[in-house]
Amino acid sequence: AVGQPRLVAGGRPGRASITQRVAGCSRVVKVASSATYFDGVLQGNENYHDAHAKNVQPLNDQNCGMYLTRGAWAIKAKEAKTILLEGVMEFQNTTKANEIFVTEVETDTALLSNGPVSEYTVRTFVEPMHPDPEDEFRARPDGYWPGYVVVAGATTKMKVYVEIRGQDLKIRDELQALWLKVKYMTYGPHGRVQKSQHVILPLKEPEPLKEPLQWKEASSEYVQKSTTLKRLALPTHLLSTVDDPVEVVKKYALPYSQPGDIVTIGETPLTAMQGRWRHPETVRPGWLARLACKLFKPTSSVATSCGMQALIDLVGPLRIVFALFMGVICKLFRKPGMFYRFAGYEANLIDDLTGCIPPYDKFIMPGPAEPEAVVARVKAETGLECAIVDVNDKSHYLGMVIVASTDPTLDDTIKDALVDNPTGNAIEQTPLVLIRP
Q1: Which of 337, 357, 363, 418 is 20 to 30 A from 69 (CA-CA)?
Q2: Cα 217 to chain centroid, rounded
């Protein structure tokens, strides 16, 4: 829980150990035919999510080539007083020649809740899953993490258990999500460097929408080209790397849709599902970022050295220098904002800290990767037209970005439907919108 002492990975949980509880999970969780993370089945396609996550790693990274995936996770038990989470995370040595030690692993957690969290306790247990048969590298009953060498190009895994205990059934109603922070120490030719990985795990699903559905007419104050237009904002659980965007649409939008409807997905929630978010502790601002950020208004997402460095890591320093030069020239001719056009797609969509709902307000959120492929998948598997959108609070047409859509001829309709931002920009947690022309 928030404020609880940090636990060394492998710290034993007390009375009944977490590993003993896992042995009885099969009697607690009934897996449905469409099994999900909430049904106790490990979710999180590492090839999909971590490929996107690696694309936002810094150019001047000092991680020596060691990467820890966010892994696959599931809620393995939900009882009256206990929630048990299980995940498998993988260390990947991406170097071609260096052996890298993983000498220490420790975890920290924070709960997100609708009420006080002081009555809850959170315990973690980390179990090595090394491929070596030697006893010295196997899981120890005392939870100690033995130092381990990952050779060049190789991987090793660890299983992480998180146990949440509360007093009564309120645990299901109040708790929204768990933020797991894993810190690990690397050692090798690069020296000794501490690295971290962050995993967001939802704990609660929203209640199904009740009839009659709350469709909203598009405001005549904003609509420019459409005649009749209805919108339905759809609440979801807190989306993260345990989610696939197509499955989210199937679960939360498809049951309320009819032929001809359009579904939109917020670009930031898609970034969250792809795992492209970065904690500022992983950003190391260089001289270019420290100087360039001072040229922007304080409200800009690149007005901080970390925000600017995150953008540099995505598009490269040469493009940023060119965009800055052209932006200054255009501003002299009274054409402001041209930096974002020359810096490209990522500059328009990146959000700095506090730009998203908790706990993503603690992370830098770039734009999503391969949005065209995402909308194509949604249409192929659901039959719905789909768009990825970035809508500002009480926006206007110029401030709205349709990142990708399955049918560009519907872009004006989508803008008319979303220009007054029916989903809100606060804690509404409605990343999907159904549009009925």
Answers
A1: 357
A2: 31
Q: What is the full DSSP assignment across 81-123?
A: SEEEEEEEEEEEE--SS--EEEEEEEEEEEEEESS--TT-EEE
Q: Which one-letter DSSP state was computed for residue 159?
A: E
**Mean pLDDT value of segment 214-228:** 67
Main-chain phi, psi angles of 307, to 5 degrees = -60, -45
Return the pLDDT at 131: 87
* 369 contacts 350 by C-beta, under 8 angstroms: no
131 CB burial (10 A radius; 0-12, 13-18, 19+)? exposed
Quote the mean pLDDT of the chain.
84
Q: How many Å apart are CA 88 and CA 161, to the nearest integer?
A: 9
Give me the percent of the chain exceeding a pLDDT of 70: 81
Handedness of CA 249, 250, 252, 258 (dihedral sign): positive
Longest dimension (CA), the chain: 71
CA–CA gap between residue 85 and residue 178 (Å, rounded): 10
Q: How confident is the model at residue 225 (pLDDT cuts 50, 70, 90)?
A: low
